[in-house]
Design brief:
Length: about 400
């Protein structure tokens, strides 16, 4: 019996050894057949290279709790790392850019300027100023240098310093600084991106559009925000990382929009609202703040097309169409929020009575007195009111659904 058990154990051991060898060979073959593709994200090798520098800096603590006492360490990322990670300034994918290299050629006969090729901005209030280099700027603006050194823009300009000179890190946006260096207190000699600056709003926006032209910003000129003299820095802050994406001036795009559109933000506090406060959507899902061909900055040609992006079941076509539904969803709904069910602008049947005169029904006007809590409760107002019978109010494909009953 012992001899048989030994033979069984040996056979089982050999079986596991063969299976393990087969698994290793197959995994190696798969790695050869599917090599790792290049990515703009940081790789495991990048973190392995960065970790010793970060650990060594964290271990040294001679500043007595003052984080600004010690000199800042050199970035663990190399120039090649940042150059590899830079996205396209017009936010298009590489596949789209390769397929349509001149999609926005009508703007400036070519694609958007890459991050690492930004030119030095022109300041109309100091036309004779010349570039003096980023080191001259840092001599006075040391704190700003510390705050902005981690930002994508500054790192990108440093990558492009070989093509635009040593001034790239600061003067690509703020313009040549010789006149400002001679008279630092005189406003206008450097391009400033604040509301109280002497730099014209069009000049501020022009600096940004020098790189970020085209794409979602192709209709900025003439847009309602541009006509109301909004600057790019009213919504964005490229010198700090206050938001996960978009270099926004606040934590999220919803907070940025509500800075001005407080009345719209208040609507989302109503009992029926889109899931924007819950973080499941943002203003930019329906609107393009950089400008569109529509008055309300809707990203699509019509309001209905925007609604159909999520509510596809309402698109139709239907055998029996409900005219106001086909015309405009806003005829019945307030997309930002309502105290009525389903974002309706009025309670049913008051909403329906704006068009329908109760023909075919007892010809009387229904009022709030007929509600369940009113002095004269009416069964036509209790429950879902008109929708109790007219269930498919958005349209019906039923041969007997001419009145949207089914």
């Amino acid at each position: 019996m012992r001899s048989g058990d030994q033979r069984s154990a040996i056979a089982l051991f050999i079986l596991f050894a063969v299976a393990g060898t087969f698994f290793v060979v197959r995994r190696a073959a798969a790695q050869v057949a599917h090599p790792a593709t290049a990515s703009s994200a940081l790789t495991e090798q990048d973190f392995s290279r960065m970790l010793p520098t970060m650990t060594a800096h964290a271990a040294v603590n001679t500043s007595d709790g003052n984080p600004h006492a010690d000199p800042l360490p050199a970035s663990a990322l190399t120039t090649q790392d940042f150059q590899r990670m830079l996205p396209r300034t017009d936010m298009r994918s590489d596949a789209d850019a390769n397929a349509h290299p001149h999609a926005h050629a009508f703007l400036d006969n070519g694609p958007a300027t890459p991050f690492d090729g930004a030119p030095i901005a022109k300041n109309p209030l100091a036309p004779d100023a010349i570039a003096i280099g980023a080191k001259s700027c840092v001599a006075c603006h040391a704190l700003e240098n510390v705050q902005a050194s981690h930002s994508l823009h500054v790192q990108a300009f440093r990558v492009g310093a070989a093509g635009t000179g040593a001034a790239a890190a600061c003067e690509s946006c703020h313009g040549p600084g010789s006149a400002h260096a001679k008279d630092p207190t005189k406003p206008g000699l450097i391009i400033a991106f604040t509301r109280d600056a002497k730099t014209p709003i069009d000049t501020q926006a022009g600096v940004c559009l020098a790189c970020h032209k085209g794409g979602a910003r192709q209709d900025w000129i003439g847009s309602v925000h541009q006509q109301h003299q909004l600057s790019c820095t009213d919504c964005h802050n490229p010198m700090a990382r206050l938001s996960p994406e978009g270099v926004l001036a606040k934590n999220s795009i919803n907070e940025v929009c509500s800075t001005c559109h407080q009345d719209i933000r208040d609507k989302f506090n109503r009992r029926s609202h889109m899931p924007l406060p819950e973080g499941q959507m943002s203003c930019a899902d329906c609107h393009n703040p950089h400008g569109t061909l529509t008055a309300d900055l809707i990203k699509t040609d019509t309001v209905n097309e925007s609604c159909y992006a999520c509510h596809a079941e309402k698109r139709g076509p239907f055998l029996f169409e409900h005219a106001p539904v086909r015309e405009n969803c806003l005829a019945c709904h307030d997309p930002h929020g309502s105290n009525q069910q389903a974002l309706l602008t009025l309670p049913v049947p008051m909403l329906c009575q704006q068009c329908h005169t109760m023909t075919g029904h007892p010809n009387d006007v229904l009022t709030t007195a007929g509600l369940a809590t009113g002095p004269a409760p009416d069964e036509r107002l209790i429950g879902r009111a008109c929708l109790t019978c007219h269930t498919n109010i958005h349209g019906s494909n039923n041969p007997s659904g001419s009145r949207f009953h089914k």
